[in-house]
Design a protein that fits this description.
single chain, Thiol Ester Dehydrase, Chain A, 1 helix
Length: 200
């Protein structure tokens, strides 16, 4: 691969497999890719001493961001702040009513719909519900990362079903795949991360 650690921000690079001493830390998929609309290109979007973010585009369409980190990947293992290990694949589904307090009416002459911040709160709360029954003494979890698409409306009076599935464990950080539906229709999806903290 090109030396993405030295290439200037905005430079186009060719990427194969991360070289020795680096690993893919995160992949953020921004939408369905298709073969129409131009060639796939990769540019350096951001960089720090140990992390570089590459942005994949097909023509003008944003496809994905890939974050590379120097060093070996951390192995997944349960953290001592939990009494039991939920393990990847552990899931929780919760139902949330769409009330006036979680809607927005910023579109003139349109019925109020579930706001994006409320959708994110539902998803984070559902992810935390996987961890809460397993907390050890003086333990809590905080939302520390979100990557959510709000893809459809939920109207006042409807019920949003949110499912969170544990995808990965990295020390105190627990990454969840999340999906929200209304009557079987998708209204949002993505990932959220919860990080364990000790209250004392």
């Amino acid at each position: 691969m090109d030396d993405v650690w030295e290439a200037p921000i905005g430079a186009e690079v060719a990427v194969a497999v991360p070289a020795d001493g680096a690993h893919v830390e995160q992949l953020i998929w921004h939408g369905d890719d298709n073969t129409a609309g131009g060639d796939l290109t990769v540019v350096v979007a951001r960089r720090s001493a140990d992390v570089v973010t590459l942005r994949l585009r097909r023509g003008e369409r944003l496809v994905a961001d890939i974050r590379l980190r120097r060093g070996d990947a951390r192995t997944g293992r349960p953290h001592g702040l939990l009494r039991t290990d939920p393990g990847p694949g552990t899931s929780c589904t919760r139902l949330f009513p769409v009330t006036a307090g979680v809607t927005t009416d910023h579109v003139p002459d349109a019925e109020p719909v579930l706001s994006t911040p409320s959708l994110i709160a539902f998803m984070e709360d559902t992810a935390a519900a996987v961890l809460r029954p397993r907390f050890g003494p003086a333990t809590a979890a905080l939302g520390t990362w979100i990557g959510i698409r709000h893809t459809g409306p939920a109207l006042r009076g409807q019920t949003v079903s949110v499912t969170a599935v544990l995808a990965e464990v990295r020390g105190r950080r627990y990454l969840f795949d999340v999906e929200a539906t209304v009557d079987g229709r998708a209204v949002g999806d993505g990932q959220v991360a919860q990080t364990l903290i000790r209250l004392d």
